[in-house]
Amino acid sequence: MAMAVTTLFPKISPLVHKTCFRNFIASVSFATFAPAVSADKPRHKWRQPVVSLVEIGGVKIDKNDVVRDDPTNNVPDTIFSKLGMQLHRRDKHPIGILKNAIYSYFDNNYQNKFDKFDDLCPIVSVKQNFDDVLVPADHVSRSYNDTYYIDSQTILRCHTSAHQAELLRKGHTHFLVTGDVYRRDSIDATHYPVFHQMEGVRVFEPNDWEGSGMDSTSYAAADLKKCLEGLACHLFGAVEMRWVDTYFPFTNPSFELEIYFQEKWLEVLGCGVTEQEILKRSGKVNNVAWAFGLGLERLAMVLFEIPDIRLFWSADERFTSQFSSGQLGVKFKSFSKYPPCYKDMSFWINDSFTENNLCEVVRGIAGDLVEEVQLIDNFTNKKGMTSHCYRIAYRSMERSLTDDEINDFQWRVREQVETKLKVVLR
Ligand code: PHE
């Protein structure tokens, strides 16, 4: 697992200094698996057809331009099939409902001053995604292991910060960017290789902070925290949350906001005071700004009590029919809990082995029917060979899987880890 969870960049010195909005989570129960909502309705197909041409923000994207058999390309079909789905633009989908609720918070508190973008193309240059926001040349997030590359200079954005510099350059001073972002990652209930983020940026003028008795950076940091605490309150009413000091290449100081969920602290957003260099390059020399990037799935899981991130992609009516436009926080009722099936697999790894590559193989075969890939044993023998044992949990959110189906997946996984990852099965 090379990459941090919602946010891209590793923590330096986690320092908890604030807790508020207690007691929300205590009342949340994930054990309630209520009877099927409409058990006799026809089930939807669990695989979505792969269309070969999509249009995003007026740009036509052909599958052959995104998925290519070329060493500079690591985009699988399953990822291409997510392009253009834009869950955040569906008003009756939890992600769209949440986006709209955040938009209303900003409209109401800032007199419609924030410009909104939710149709910017997710295919961006390496420069936009990394260089423009000062990500160092050797940063792990640039690796083929962590990011989907279309070619050596073009990627699927891994954060909405990819649009910051350009919008600042165009003169926007208050803006929100919502979009689908893509990351190669491990597999579990809160990680999926495509998710949605919202970026917020606010630029201040000298007369904003002059007279406050604060220096410009402290002023922006205080305003940022006030804004996001207000947002958390607007969304959750009361929830246990804390600020953690962290590091991002594009902000200083930088913070993360964590929310207590399912007995764990969950990162839901990263933020900070924008590096002066970014403002300077976009022609703003007498300003200070703040920026944040929040993970919409993480927040929606808490708000709607959605226990598994794969559900957001479900076309099953028993999922989709539970949400309506403008209704934030309707509690999701599981249609029923289908049993998981576990399969273990051990192999000797090689130097190039990574868990992300393994997860990519498993998803390529089982798609959304894989729930978790977990390292359960790891040892090195006297000859220096390292063995890993992974436990794969297969489970559908929508139906029971058959033994044949699972055995078939597992055989194909075993075959492909040998041929594609060149590991030696034990
Ligand atoms: N882009 C960061 C991430 O995805 C989040 C972030 C946005 C942090 C803006 C600070 C400012 O991890």
UniProtKB/TrEMBL annotation:
It is an enzyme of class 6 (ligase). Is responsible for the charging of tRNA(Phe) with phenylalanine in mitochondrial translation. Residues 336-426 form the FDX-ACB domain. PANTHER family: PHENYLALANINE--TRNA LIGASE, MITOCHONDRIAL, PHENYLALANYL-TRNA SYNTHETASE. One of its GO terms (biological process) is phenylalanyl-tRNA aminoacylation. Residues 179-340 form the Aminoacyl-transfer RNA synthetases class-II family profile domain. One of its GO terms (cellular component) is mitochondrial matrix. It is found in: Mitochondrion matrix. GO terms for molecular function: ATP binding; phenylalanine-tRNA ligase activity; tRNA binding. This is phenylalanine--tRNA ligase. It catalyses: tRNA(Phe) + L-phenylalanine + ATP = L-phenylalanyl-tRNA(Phe) + AMP + diphosphate + H(+). SUPFAM superfamilies: Anticodon-binding domain of PheRS (SSF54991), Class II aaRS and biotin synthetases (SSF55681). Keywords: Aminoacyl-tRNA synthetase, ATP-binding, Ligase, Mitochondrion, Nucleotide-binding, Protein biosynthesis, Transit peptide.
